[in-house]
Write a structure and sequence with these properties.
Number of helices: 6
Number of domains: 2
Order of helices and strands: EEEEEEEHEHEEEEEEHEHEHEH
Distance between the termini: 17 Å
Oligomer: single chain
CATH architecture of the largest domain: 2-Layer Sandwich
CATH class of the largest domain: Alpha Beta
Largest sheet: 6 strands, mixed
Structural class: alpha/beta
CATH topology of the largest domain: lpxc deacetylase, domain 1
CATH superfamily of the largest domain: lpxc deacetylase, domain 2
Number of strands: 17
Length: about 270
């Protein structure tokens, strides 16, 4: 197993879901074995998307920061990287937030597939291999990791809400499985939360074009899957685990977990296996 990059550069443009700004990001091939982002608008030094730069707090998104730079809403992009095994990129961006695109990771996957994946033969990569069960809790949410022969991810959610109720999803992480069953699942939110989010300075770029919106008695727009919410939470979990920038051989099970617990889980894995 080796580090992997893109064979060709790609550019994606879209709106930042929280900032509302127009964002352009360009991903260039790299042989460094890290994923780094440079804000060309603010001319800051590269920010490595690594556990050491993971922000301690977040607002409904995964955020990285150091002394000079901040980048947020990375989870959909990193999730697509995980599906393709991409560990080495140099990225240029003109803002502090990745574009939300259609609210899923589908467009990232399409761009990766078109650019082609390039193994870095001079840079071997050792996966994390789960050797014994691990469980981490936060209130009523938890993440469980158990040994397995491949990389498997599961997610279960439950809301006291007539539209969502309980949903679950399981996937063996391969590019084709991910593209077909996980990548199209969009971020979601409740119609009643929108005004509150805007008052917090969030969701300025949110719309029915980049999110699944849930009303009191029905979806406001049409879901792509009957369990799209669970699929998207699984997408987020996969992306947050890719902060470690290496595959995990094991079965990772998220139960009502969010970014904060996902981040605690990655820290626990790093402490145990890295």
């Amino acid at each position: 197993m080796n580090h992997q990059t893109l064979a060709n550069s790609i550019t994606l443009t879209g709106i930042g879901i929280h900032s509302g700004e127009n964002i352009t990001m360009t991903c260039h091939p790299s042989t460094e074995g890290i994923i780094s982002i440079t804000n060309i608008k603010e001319k800051t030094p590269p920010l490595i998307l690594s556990l050491s730069n993971l922000a301690q707090t977040h607002n409904r998104a995964t955020k990285f920061q150091n002394e000079t730079a901040t980048i947020t809403t990375t989870e959909h992009f990193l999730s697509a990287c995980a599906a393709f095994g991409i560990t080495s990129l140099t990225i240029e961006i003109n803002g502090n937030e990745l574009p939300i695109l259609d609210g899923s990771s589908k467009d990232f996957c399409m761009a990766f597939d078109k650019a082609k994946i390039q193994p870095i033969n001079s840079k071997p990569l050792l996966p994390i291999i789960i050797t014994e069960p691990i469980t981490i809790w936060k209130d009523t949410a938890c993440i469980i990791a158990t040994p397995a022969k491949s990389s498997i991810f599961s997610y279960y959610l439950s809301y006291n809400h007539p539209v969502i109720q309980s949903q679950s999803e399981t996937i063996e992480l391969t590019p084709s499985n991910y593209i077909n069953h996980i990548a199209p699942a969009r971020t979601y939110g409740f119609e009643k939360e929108v005004e509150h989010l805007i008052k917090q300075g969030l969701a300025k770029g949110g719309s029915l074009e980049n999110a699944l919106v849930i009303g009191e008695k029905s979806y406001i727009n049409t879901p792509r899957f009957k369990n799209e919410c669970a699929k998207h939470k699984l997408l987020d979990l996969i992306g947050d685990c890719w902060i470690l920038n290496k595959p995990i051989i094991g079965h990772i099970i998220g139960i009502k977990s969010g970014h904060q617990l996902n981040h605690s889980f990655t820290k626990l894995l790093a402490k145990k296996y890295l």
